[in-house]
Records
---
Amino acid sequence: MASQSFSDLGLSEEILKAMEDMGWSEPTPVQVAAIPVGLKGTDLIAQAQTGTGKTGTFGSIILSRVPAGGNVPGAIVLTPTRELAIQVAEELSTDRLAKYTGHRCIAIYGGTSYEKQISELEKGTDIVAGTPGRVLDLIDRGYLNLAGIKVIVMDESDRMLDMGFIEDVEEIFKCCPKERQMMMFSATMPEDIRMLSNDYMVKPKEINVSRDVVVLDNIEQFYIAVGRRNKSWALSRILDLDKPKALIFCQTIKMVDMLEERLKEYGYKAEAIHGDMPQKKRERVIGDFREGKVDLLIATDVAARGLDIDDVDYVINYDMPEELETYIHRVGRTGRAGRKGTAASFVTAQEEYLIKEFEVRTGMVIAKRDVPDNEEGAKDTIRKVVDYDQLSNAFGMCRFEISLGKADGVGKVKLADYIMKAGRIIDAAIGKIELGEESSVVEVHKDFGNKMLKDVPKMTFRGKKVSVKVLERE
Ligand code: AMP
């Protein structure tokens, strides 16, 4: 496909100039496909994820179709989260896309006081970016008037519906004039979005740019096979070696808190964000990360939704997500605005199938890497421990090498007896034994791993010192 330039898309000089100031040299695929359609006032449904340039898409359409300096807003962008509302408002601010058109855009979201938002509304705005609950609230209180709306945008529509905003959203639509343009952006296209579009849109044009194109292009992706107990060790290696500005994802709020505590304990500058934190604190933490006061931000998916920070070097999936969409969404937080990014996923033995699945479904390559080596002579900040879960097979058996063999006059039975006695290990916990000349390999259940590794060598065999080491999984 011949690359298109922004000036082919029908945008005004003011918008083109703002884009140039922002360092955008050419439009992304979704911008190429959607901007000319949107400029005509046509309704549209675009399948596009964060990182594809969707905000620039609907933003430039709004700035083109809604006059600046009106009394009541001419466009409303609905978002599932406050962070996203704030980011949309920032992207459409007079520092960014509206630099030369002078449109005013404000963010409206819950979990914070009304006064500031009300006073901003009273001063007048051209565009509102907001979460459905608070938007509706301010309409009900009489501060927000949608009678002048010409353009409605639903951003991250799938998440909006997932979060149960459908009724609020429909209520808001009813407060807008019948004659208006509606655009829906969504990473996925579930049935309920199609139904919503049938009810509220007029012959919408569907735009489906092949996913991943922009998001993952300049991102190096790899994974490290590491057990749960050694993830913090692997993380410390990466952090010590690359000293990145990194966004670290965990699966649960509890895990986020635990990791924050652990990293701080070892002297890393890390902060956590998740949905259980007061809004004020979340904003402060995100601000500190944006400004570089903290290097490491640990987050849940919900808290990191829509997080738009251009200079994140690394995204680390401390816990591997099970959904491809989530993976793409997380990884797309790096490699933004033309920069290079790295995405590292920590994958336990039980999760490796996910990597294969994601590779097959997208055609991308996620290479396997070892935990990086330390710099010459450097000590680990967080030490490696033995992780029996990671080392054991599907039956929970780990393999150990013990320094006894035929040369010591033992057979399989004698060796098993010795291990049971020396380590106080039960019969049933001992599996296959491969007898060697000088040493042998013995399977022991992971629950007895520590006894095998620590207790067995405390005894001597006919006066001979015995050593045991745990082997990697076969
Ligand atoms: P979004 O998909 O709206 O979250 O945008 C992702 C990032 O790409 C944001 O940092 C935008 O500022 C940036 N961006 C959007 N369009 C372009 C473009 N045409 N060229 C370069 N960067 C862009």
---
Amino acid sequence: MEQNWNVLKNACMDCRACGLCETRHNVVFGVGNPQAEVLFIGEGPGENEDLQGEPFVGRAGKLLDVMLEAVGLSRKHNIYIANMVKCRPPQNRDPLPEEQAACAHWLSEQMRFINPKIVVCLGRIAAFHFISPDFKVTRQHGEFIEKDGVLYMGMFHPAAILRNPNQKPVAFEDFVKLRDKILEICTRTTLNFDD
Ligand code: URA
């Protein structure tokens, strides 16, 4: 398992399937525990992520970490975080359809390996792809939707919460719902860590 994961990661790190490989500093493969039962999916790397090679390390990422920690979750231990697109589009433009298409199989393979019980879609774009093209984050955030035996939940994107801080309490309720669902259905997930 570990060996296959490393093979996948190494292949992704060398990917040159679209033009984003010309401008990226780092491929942002993902971070966390590949044996986690909970997978978070974001949209794509921004400037900080591109420079550091890790998802959600800017201001939005710090907010995500604070909310995660408050419910006993941590990117170091009991979740995995990946983006739909692995390389930063220049000037943070939206990835082109052909860039998304060239990249999609990396996340599919990560999902196949991780085989999560719960998938959290951070923001509209991930929810559009993994839950439904009709998904409305403002109305449906925090709801669990079952697909093929996996529970999907859409949440506000942490960058959206930074832009609209009065959403913070409502957004945090979704983390509490997530924690409750983990306690209900996840058998291998230990909550709470000292670091
Ligand atoms: N936004 C995302 O969707 N992903 C990141 O990694 C950072 C910001």
---
Amino acid sequence: MCGIIGYVGQRDAYPLLLTGLERVEYRGYDSVGICTTDGTLHLLKEVGRVEQFKNKRLPGKQGIAHSRWATHGGVSQKNAHPFIAHDAFALVHNGIIENYLELKEELIEKGVVFSSDTDSEVILHLVVGHYQHGPDKNLLAAVQQAVKQLQGAYAFAVLNKDAEEIVAARDGCPLLVGIGERENFIASDATAFIEHTQKVVYVDDFEIVRVTKDALELFDHDGAKKNVSIVEVRGNIEVAQKQGHPHFMLKEIMEQPQTIAETMKVELPRIGRPKRILIVACGTASYAGLLGKYILEKFAKIPVVHETASEFRYQEPLFYPDDLVIAITQSGETADTLAAIRLAKKHGMKTLGIINVRESTIAREVDQVIYTRAGPEIGVASTKAFTAQLIVLYKLAFQLGGKKFEGKGIATLIEETLKLEDRIKEIAQKYVHNNHFLYIGRNLFYPLALEGALKLKEISYIHAEAYPAGELKHGPIALISEDMPTIAICPRHETYEKMFSNIQEIKARQGKIIALASTGDERMREISDDIIYLPKADGLLTPLLVAVALQLFAYHLAALRGCDIDKPRNLAKSVTVE
Ligand code: F6R
């Protein structure tokens, strides 16, 4: 969370930093700031989005910038980055410094005056202190000293107004360098500079990088120089544009016939048959994992433990020698998922990542990776990454079960589901004033209920709860009233009759039903208030169609309520703090 970018080169830094900020803004958008230098520091920082800086300018061929997702300290101008000290040093930070209170007290005792409530400002004053007391006024040496005092997670960048360099350091948050012609960038994500260079150096944990317009040097915390390895990243700028759609989320929903078809082509690596699988993930990826558990147990006949990564990392999980730990993650940067993988590796477990972003931190740490081919996902609410994760899990379950997942006609089926958009919008219109929704499903459709409810919550701010339908009578049925409609995921399936009974129980209590059902299901039409008929498909493929229909429902409800769909309040795309 929080996006950082820096530039040092021959061109005006401001426009480059501004475009870079727009690209990393998905990482947080509480406040925004840019600092450039031409021998004097120039600073702009405000609460709100980067677009407010579009018609402004700052001089200088070097600078750093930041878009914030607030952790320590409220959303305010004083807590916006960059932070400045002595009109000479500027710093931007992504992460959390856990021992900042202790460090802050020590600094205050030494006479340092703080201008913000953030943990980040502590780093700046530590660096400046070491710089001023160091023998040779050396920014790199000062950063090397400062990082030894930090506990927590960080990627930060610092500059001095008089030196043509940026020094940046990483532990636990993404940081990379883009190498251009007589210019260099640092950023949280390569999309920040992808149109200027595709040559990238990934900075690893416990590394410090010094970047000038002509050079890049990498060091460890003790000052020893490290080898630099340059990789070419793929990517183009079109994918980072909406291409006529009002929101990235809608564009990404509509891309699913292609992203699913592409992911179907993925060749899985050879994976030995484990005795047990542990799946760790967060949010939407975790719901993909839950469906994965059902599918893996059904087709591969391997027991699966499904864990939320943020819980798993603080439990004392039991590992057995032939376990395989699978991390599912779009970004490959989620702090809790990364910590869960590190814990598994510490216990000597074999790890596999199902990941969308190439060369991301988790991709580089797991033993084996399967990349989903969803392409860059920019909308904060995950859509095409989810369906791509499901495809990989299906393929994996079949491979481990000694079979091949055919997924026949899946791309066409998704296209047909997308054609339901008008019908879904019509239903969304009818329920636009409802503030509570219940989502229910059984078996393969229960994880879809969870995912559907999450989509609705995060982009429309409507309260939604998901339950396995059989659980209703154990409490949640008390919520049922005319004002709390239920989305019932009830295509024909082994548990269809049970779902039918649960729906009747809701109707008997004046609850409204929006049913997602198999085409032609008259019985379901009669009992429900509104029905979305899903295209006729193989039972195993139906969850993918349900996913798409529920994405469209959440999208249109949020759009009708005028919500900021691509940047919902309080959220960020890449969750690199715990
Ligand atoms: C919801 C959403 C989040 C992410 C979660 C994990 O739409 O996007 O719940 O799924 O933060 O992110 P990744 O997959 O990047 O690990």
---
Amino acid sequence: MLKSLTKVMAIVLLLALLVPSATAVLAQEAVACDQDYSVQADDWLSKLADKFYGDVLAYPAIFDATNAAAKSDSSYATIANADLIEPGWKLCIPSADDAQAMMGGAAPAEAPAAAPAAGGGKSYVLVPKNLGNPYFDAANVGAQAAAAELGVTVTYQGSATADATEEIQLLNSLIAQKVDGLAVSANDSDALVPVGKSAIEAGIPVVSWDAAIAPGGRTVHINQATAEGIGRGQIELVSKLIDGAGEIAILSATSTAPNQNEWIKWMNDELTKPEYADIKLVATVYGDDDDEKSYNEALGLMKTYPDLKAIIAPTTVGIAASARAVQDQGMVGKVAVTGLGLPSQMREYVKSGACPAFALWNPEDLGYLAIYTLNAIASGQIEGKPGDTFDAGKLGSYTIDENGEVLLGPPFVFDPSNIDNFQF
Ligand code: RAM
């Protein structure tokens, strides 16, 4: 429920930004409906655009076609707000060609820039790996706080799934809209380099945060903590939970996730130390930061490895799903779940013992720092080069290191003694 609510809120923000400009340039005459569609619970226009055209940004075609059809046939819905569609409404779905032609009317180069902030502030976009992930929603809370302090606008836009191709498509469209800056959590480090480069060449600074775009496709990367510290810390934590012996498995995000892959590399390195000789990593699997897939992968691990002692899930989606799977299977006390999680999602599992301890940084601070960094570059206070120092509001001053990265700080371990002190 929370998941779908937050998803809807993010889409509402997306639509609030795009609809007035996009639809204004689309044809208003009726187009042929290739098919009719009856709105289901949990539908929203960009989701339907994705379903019918494989493009979340093509929703104005459905919006306009339905409104045009409603003029001559009242069985079609009249959509006043693109962010409000009701179950049972009849929508007109133009053919892919017609939709493309309609969207072609809104040629990216002609599209107006994203709405400027009151007071002439800049307009930035915070792009998560995927929508509907409470971790990224928390980062957006911090980003909005930074935006309010700086007098700029930050919109939160992303794709439904953690997928690099969809993310690249979105970024291309944001470049065409001439936004003032992009803050991106990357679904693939190398695949996003060309689009990042295009943005920078178009004068749009690119700050990657959480999951890095490789150098060349970003101006600066905001790292939540060192990859080495996170990776080694995960093994130290699991070792304590299983008394230094037994089979463990890793349940990660997607197989291309730049951040998880770096952390896993360091976990494997840490495991070569003599003190972990009795710990055996039996599998590394991927839940794609999708709750259901992660849950099923966790079930699969317990089935395939009956002696499994622990699951490390270095993803907030994977750790919550794994803890739920362990609890549902009555395996609390037999299989310990740890990794990286949100206190708000993990509280019940810490208390039940399914996840005795886990780590994370403050994602709100990460989003806040990403926007302060982006604004420092976009407003010309700094170039974004190693050695540049800038102010990040309540977090104090930061310096870009020799690798072109800004480091938020060390991760924090949550357990029964402190879990109630954190809300994010
Ligand atoms: C998930 C995402 C994110 C990661 C956290 C720990 O929410 O994969 O990129 O940093 O987990």
